[in-house]
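== Polypeptide entry ==
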Amino acid sequence: MKHGVKKALSAAIAFVTTATLALTAYAMEYDLKPEAPTANATSVSASTDSLKSAVDTASGSEGATAKVEVKSTASLPVSSSVIKSLSKSDDAVLEIASPKATITIDSSTITKVRKVDLSSKIYSSKSRAVVDFRSNAKFGCEVKITLKNCKMTEAALAKAHVYCDGEDLGPVELDENGNPVITATKGGKYEIK
C-alpha cells in the first residue's frame, strides 16, 4: 500500500511541477512589449504634423480637401504653420471630421495667419445645439461647423437662429442634408435655438 501511495504522490508532484513550469512560461509572454498598431486612421486630436501633411498634400491639387479625422474636438489647436500652409493655396479646404461635427476652413477666407484654437464642446438637445469654444479669440478666417447629429427637429431648425455669446447672428443655415451649419470668425459660445 505504501508503494502505491508513493507512486500516486510522485505522479501528483510531477503534474504540479509541469503545470507550474507551463504557467511560468505562459506568464513570461506577458512581459514582452506589445507591438504598436501600424496605422491609426482616427486619433483623439489632430497633431500639427498630421494637419500640415494633409494640407501640404491638398495644396498641390486644385480644389482639393485636406481631410483629417478625430474622435473628439475637446483639444483641437491648429497651429499658425498649418494656417500658413493652407493660405498658400487659393482653393484648398481643411476639413476636420469628428463624430459630432465637421469643421472646415476654406483657404480663400484666411485674412490673417495665426493659431486657431478649435477646441470645443459640442452637444445638442431637442431645443438647442451648442458649440462652446475654449477660446474667445478671433480666428483670422471663417470656420464652418456642420453639426452631424443635431437632435433638433426639422421644424425647430426652420425657426431657429444662431447666437454667439447671446448676440443674435440671424437664421441658422442648413446644408444639403438638413444639418445646421455655424459660420464663426472667432471663438465663444455658439447656440442654435
